Structure formats: C-alpha cells, structure tokens
Amino acid sequence: MQIFTNTSYNFTRWRWQAAAVSLVFVIAGISVIVSRGGLPVGIDFSGGTIVVVKFDQDVTEDQVRQAVGPIPGEEVVQQYGDAQDREWLIRLALTDAVEDGFSIDQGSQQILNAIEGAGLPSFELLSREIVGPVIGADLQRRGLYATLASLLAIAVYITFRFRVSFALGAVAAVFHDVIVTVAFLVFFGYDLSLNIVAALLTITGYSVNDTIVIFDRVRENMRSRRRDPLDDVVNLSVNQTLSRTVITSGTTFFSVLALYLFGGEVLRGFAFTMLVGVVSGTYSTVFIASAIAITLSQRNQPLAASPTAAARQEAKARPKRKTRGAKAS
Amino acid sequence: MNKNLRWKIVLIVSVIALSVWSFYPPGQKVNLGLDLKGGVHLIMRVQTDAALRIETDTSAERLREALNIAAVQYTSLEVSSPTEFAVEGIEDDQAFRQVAVDADTVFSRSEGVGSYTYTMRPNIASQLGEEAVAQAQQTIERRVNELGVAEPIVARQGAADQILVQLPGVTDVDRAKEIIGRTALLELKLVEQGPFPSEEAAMQAVSDVVPPDMELVSGAEDVAATGGGTPGTVYYLVRRVAPVTGRDLRTSRPTLDENNLPAVSFTFNQDGAQRFGQFTEQNIGRGLAVMLDNRVFTAPIIQSRIADEGRITGSFTQQEAQDLSLVLRTGALPAPMDILEERTVGPTLGRESIEAGVTASLGGLALVIVFILLHYRVTGLNAVVSIVVNLSILLGMMAYLGATLTLPGIAGFILTIGIGVDSNVLIFERIKEELATAKGVRAAVNAGFDRVWWTIVDTHVASLISAMFLFQFGTGPIRGFATTLTIGLLANIFTAVFVSRTMFELVLSRRPQQQAQVLSI
After folding, report:
1. B261 to chain A nearest CA, in Å?
2. Using alpha carbons only, what angle is made at residue A94 by residues A41 and A103, rounded to the nearest 5 degrees?
3. Which of A22, A48, B208, B390 is the most exposed place for a label (fewest CB within 10 A)?
4. What is the pTM of this model?
5. pLDDT (tens digit, 9 = 90+) per residue, A95-153?
6. What fold is seen in the domain B3-35+346-518?
7. Beta bridge mates, B214
8. Residue A191 sits in the same domain as residue A303
9. Is the complex ipTM more than 0.90?
10. Residue A255: its chain B contacts at CB < 8 A?
C-alpha cells in the first residue's frame, strides 16, 4: 500500500499564498485575544479557586448558579464531563482578602457552604484547587521563561546542526503554531492552565521535530544537488518526506483524538491543544519553516540554469553520495 | 544466524525481561501521582519576616534589660520593622555604647542625634531566613511522618521561602493543613494580673500602659473567670519572658483530665525540668499561663513545685487532643506559614482519571497498530514490536527510578507512541525509497537505517531540549509528563533503531533470497 509515490507537488510555489493564509489566522487570533481582554488565564496563573462537586441527583445549571450567586466576586459555573455524571465545576476569581494565614481557602468554604445552604441534593467534593497570587505570578513568569528558553536552546541546536536561516525558519514556525493554537483555545473558550502550557511546550517540540525531518532531507539533498536553487531542493525534500509527514501526523492526530474523546475531563484542554497544534505544526513545517529558510538563505540564486524535469529525474536515479550521517556498515 | 545477531537478540530479550520484571505487577510498582491516586498538594511559604522579627524583638529586649541594669537613660526603644529597632533620647553616649556592644554582632548601627538605629546585617538576615525555612521543612517532615502518610514529599521549591508538601491518599485537607501549618509554639509564662473579662478592663488595671516586661494576651473562654453566665474571651497580663517553652519538651501525648475529658500532657527534658522546677518553686500561689501560639489555654494556680510534667486542658475533642500532642511532640515551627497553593483530588476523580487515561491510551495504541499493520503489513509487525518494547522499557524505567505516573504522564505515553511511530515510519519510508533505486533488499535496509540515523538524533535532541525545560518549569503533574517523555525518547532511540534493525536482520538472515517482497513494504 502506498500513499504517495514520487509526488512532485510544488509546495514552495504556494509559499506566499500560504504566508497570507497564516497571516490571516495569526491576525485573527491576536484580535480574538485582544477583543476578549487579553489571554484568558485560568486560576493556575491568575490565582483563584476551583471546586468540583458531584451531586447524587440531577441539578440544573441555574440551581447551582443561584446557590453560589451571593458569593462576592464573579463565579463561573460549568458542567464538568458528561451530563449523566452530575459533576459541576465552580470557579471563583481571586478575592482581595487572601494570603493572610490560612484564609486562601475562604473562597472554597464559601462555595461549599452556599451549596449546602441552598438545599441542593447532597454532594461529594471531587477536587479543590486554590492558587494564591504569589504562585500564580510565579508560574506565569516561569511558564514564559521556559517556553522562550526552550525555543532559544532549540534554535541554537538547529544553527549548530544546520544553518541560521533554518533555525529562524523553525522558530518562526513554532511561533506561528503557538499563536494559532492559542487563538483556537481562546475561540473555543479554554482557559490557559498548567496542562495547556505543557501541551503548548509539547507542540513546540512536535513542530520542531517535524521541521527537522524535512531540513535533514534538505541538507542531504543540498550535497547531491549543489547546482539547484534552494527552493527546488526544498520542494524535492518536502515531496520525498511527504508520506512520512502524512502518516506521522495522521497517527499522532488520531492518538490525540483518542485522548480528547476518552481521556476524561481533566485532559480535555490538553488534548484539544495538541489536536490543533499537530495540524498547525504539520502545515507550518511545509509552508512556514521552509519558506522562511528559503527567503533568508543567500544560496537562493541558482548557480547554474535550473535543470529540466528530465535532468531532475535522472539526478534522483543516481546513487546518492554518502551523507554525513551514513556510517560505513 | 550469525553470532553477532544472536548477541543482539539476547540483549533485546534481556532488556525486555528486565523491564517487565521492574514494573510487574504495575499496581504495586508504579507510583501514581496525586492526580490519579487522590491526595493533597500544598505549597507553603515560611513567613521568614516573622522569624527575623523574633530575633529583633529578643535583641531589643536584651538591650532594654542591659540598659536598665546599667542605669543608662533613654526615652524610647522601639522595634520599627522586622529587621530594625531604634533607641532614642540617649543622654550618656559613652555609657550606652559600652552596654550596647553585644548587639553589634547581629546589627549594624547608624547614628543620629542622641539616637541609634540598629539594622540587621543582610548576611545574618538571609542566614536566619534560610535557617527558618530549613527548620520548618524538618518540622513538617516530622509531622507528616507522625501522620503516617505513605510516600509523602516535603521539599523546598521555587522561591527560597517555599516548601512543597504532597500527601498522597490524604483527603481530609483541613486536618492535614491544621497539623502541618500550626506553629505550635508552647510557652509557659507567669500570670502577672488577670484574668480580665475584657481588654479594656485589663488596660484599666495597668492605667492604660502595659509595662515593658509584660504583655497582654487573650485566653480561652473561661466561664468561671468572667463571673458565670457569659462565656467570652478573657485577657491576661503575663510576664514577657517564658522560663520554659516547647523546645524544652521531651515528649507529649493525649490523655484525660480529672473530668475524663481529652487533654494533652507533656514532659520536660532534664534541662527544662530543672528550670521549671525552680520557677514553680519561686512562684507558688501565682498563676501559670499555659500558652499555645500566643493564646492562653489554661492558667492554673501553682500549688507546689512541679518538676517535669505539665498538662494542657481545654475543650478538646479526642482528635484535637491527639493532633495537638502530635504537633507538640514534633516541635514548633520557627515562624508561621502561609498557604500559597492548595490542590486536592478526591479518590473518585482520581479513579475516573485513571480509567479515562488508560482507555484513551489503549484506544490510541490500538488505532495506531491497526493502521501500521494495514499500511506496512508484515513489516508493520516490526514497528508494533518496537513500540511495545518501548512502552515496556518506559514503564520499567519509571518503576525503577521511582518516578511518578501522573495524568499528563499518561499523555506522555501517548506521545511516546507517536514518536515511536514517527521513527519507524521514517525508516520504512526511507527503505522504500532505497528499494526504488534497485540496490537489493539488504543494501536498501542498511542505507535506510544509516541515512535516517542522524534525522532521528536531531529530532530526539530537539524534543529532549523542550522536555528538559518543561521539567524545569513544571510542578508535579507536568514534571511527570516531562519525565515520561524523556524516558520515552531515550527508549525510542534504542527500540526504533536497534530493535527494529535487528528484526530486519533476522528476517533477512532466514530468507537470503534478495527480494523486495520479503519486506512487503
């Protein structure tokens, strides 16, 4: 069974159109974020209280909302998981009177008292998360640093193994993926949590992984096709690795889809982030990373006249020269 | 089969056997994180300022005493911040400096007009803060151990004054917090005056100025003291200096008082007993305030010399008496603690999460296996075997290292499957391409592996870099993810390259006819 055999799609020809599409996505994403008043950070970063309770009889959202209504500050009430589980999540933003001794659990006490007092069916406390402002700010800073530092380290590695223009292409692709993914998260109403930041970091890894596979091939092909312009070499490399790209992205996508569908409520945000990121990462490798690498490379001008298609086929049939990585075995 | 190949197979089989032996049975050998097992996660902050304040207070008091003894005149001596106190209105500068020489080791002195400001030296302040955090960590460790929690974590983390506490399986958060976070500073002080029914009454008794060597403290409600009827808080004026404190305790245990109500009894160590004996002997007939965290619990009249034993009574429940004796036994915290973050996962949610996570992983794995077998047929078996070996090495290593499996860790398993598939697909697709150049099967397989080797190294190094930063950044569950991902990546280099190649060699050695159909790629 073959998915793609000797394809020769001209991916690089579409790079400006692709760049325009990406730009639209990125701008739309940023405007969604701005229009909703910044990134919707969850309590992990903003501080606050989340309580998840499981009622032993059905309750309506209005009932829960009414019960917690009198608590000062803004409350968020959400169904947690499937309706038949009767699980509800109640979130309180950070109030002012916190961090004084044990009083950060004040919010959760208020929630529990309110539900008890409202005459709702009896319930079980499934989980309780309370994050104070110190930790929230701390995590925010560390999350940002970790993402930037890991990107920098990866860029250094790619520069060392390939060349600077490739590293810039890879990093631009990662930024593209992160912005697009965050825009989707905002649009679908997910709050940035620790788990989602972990997923975003994973996506940076995945996106770079994908990019490197193609760059590796480009590097190899550049040795055997010194006379071709870089965009032809890139195009050839993208085509040669197309089967692998589709199979890998496809299997990863379906594994993550399984996680999204069956992984439970706690991992849903994580899985959603990965779903968007896998698609975006695959697309950005082909269209963003390569395009930027080509545009920034000085070796874009052909050293000789562009070879004909026939010559290209011939070149492909030629036994390849030993690459840097090939061990004599 | 050549000798080389045989050794490779022996190596692979032993790695598999070792891994399975490490994690089997997984129920016992793989640590589950709080999000899967249920439990309490706390990040606490030691109020190091309070610890510094105690030092500053003590130094200021000592200076006051010394000045009084030497009869050096001054108008005021006040502690203005946790690390600063000021003396004003000094008349005889020479005499003052002679008396105050002791304070110079800890404080730096700046001179004003007839006044001095003492500021704690920064290196001493940071050393005291560090000691307070270290001591708090040890105290919490002792308390957690006494609670009998299996596999707790008590560790410094993040900013210098933060302590992470994880208690798997504990679901009564409030009690856990009460025990861990209670300062539990026991002090026995002499009652100078009181009890008073209100703060005003107490202030009246000293004509609105509390003498410098005394302090006004609140006490437990005591119906008898307030003259019956109205239970309320009472107030005492007590001597500032405590002759004995919780540091002088040898042990403490829950007991019953004469009315058969729960109480806590304690015994002093030798040194403490001696001081307490002397103190009670000198103060027969006066009140002894038994104070816990600056609040008077009981204030009995000293009837006779008491040597080595005391008791705290109050309206305790059995549980409270037990917990109080626990915190007294394990010593006081050097400073009060704040809770910065608290996460509790109930056992129900943990169980649901495990089920969902395992279902999703198995579902993902099944999908991938079906696809690979459909696409690559017999050769696909190769990939399936290497992925399964990868997962068993991953589980084995996690059990061996005592790493914790968290919910994001399960996601790490799924990602490891994805990486495994990726490496195998890279190799297979490359072999396919090499076959197209009609080199013969064996040469194509060799070339496929060789050419892909550096691609695999590059992709894995890049992923390891991001996993490393993830670990650096993350707390509990996310570290679990980074750990799983790292082990999975390392195992994958072994399985996708070494195991898979050995299997190719095995097939080729059995069927020497060099036909592409052997591989059915």
Report:
1. 29
2. 140
3. B208
4. 0.76
5. 655 444 446 777 788 888 888 888 888 888 888 888 887 888 887 887 788 878 888 88
6. Multidrug efflux transporter AcrB transmembrane fold (1.20.1640)
7. B239
8. yes
9. no
10. 364-365, 367-368, 414, 417-418
